[in-house]
Amino acid sequence: MNDDARTDGGTASATDSGASAGALAEVDGYRVLLYLGLLGILAFFMIPIESGLVTSFKTSTGVTGSLPFAPPTGSTFTLEKWRTAFDALGRGLINSALYAIPATVISALLGSFAAYGLTQSDWKQRYKAPVLALFVAGIFIPYQAVLVPLSQFWSMIPLQDALGFLWALGINNDYTGIFELIVTHVAYGLPICTVLFRSYYKNMSEEMIEAARLDGASIRRIYRRIVLPLSGPMFAVVLIYQFTQIWNDLLFTLVLVQTESSAAAPIVLILAGLGTSLEGQDFALRMAGAFIAALPTLAVYIAFGEEFAEGVAT
């Protein structure tokens, strides 16, 4: 009796019910499940990050008196943890940048050179294959397997004596460890950089390289004028990957710098002991420190994100 009369003889409720049933019939069940799954994955990865971020803004009372993912309110909100973390990690940020930036750039350049020689040069294949096999084998050597040989190697190198002119300028000789970290990370990162660049150069236009050869261009000129300008996307991939690996590495820094009290201590060493005391753990301070330590890698990804996506898709 609530149905409205229509000029075509039907009723409004019957028409709405039919339209609703038609709309439901058009819903793709697979797509709904897909979106629900994606939302679940997003929540799985974002909840720990959200919990860490809100914890970094809480007082010690707020951390113990509220759920980990609940935001701070009123008197439990503070910026003091971030200020303390910046003061404690400032020295480590500079020290980490001193070796992470040069080691990343050098390993990327050397990897590009090596990959160019293994793909675009006119060397015979039987010479290229063993060299490539060595690079591939180098990728699978774990950090833990080289820690003792690495320590013994640097104990035999008189690097501190060779850098005496720097110590004469007033620089602390603890920074010998920074130079050792640069060389170590370049050597250890070179295999993966070479393999990544090689996969990129294998798909490069052979006609263009051959045309340059026919015009009399040398192998060095072809690299400088053609290969290097076209390598931007893969350089972005390698720079982001290498910088993240080097910045977050703890094992090599433990062996070569050893202690957070050193003047050359990187941020990962200082962060390991941040917020720990006999009274317990300051979780808010540790969370603030972790986010500060992650900022440079996030900045690198934002700076090269577009080229990174292009290089990964290539």
TrEMBL record:
The keyword ATP-binding does not apply. Pfam families: BPD_transp_1. The keyword S-adenosyl-L-methionine does not apply. It comes from the Archaea. GO terms for biological process: transmembrane transport. It is found in: Cell membrane; Membrane. The chain crosses the membrane at residues 32-49, 97-119, 131-157, 177-201, 222-244, 250-271, 283-304. Keywords: Membrane, Transmembrane, Transmembrane helix, Transport. Residues 93-304 form the ABC transmembrane type-1 domain. One of its GO terms (cellular component) is plasma membrane. It is a multi-pass membrane protein. Belongs to the binding-protein-dependent transport system permease family. This is Carbohydrate ABC transporter permease. It comes from Halorubrum salinarum.
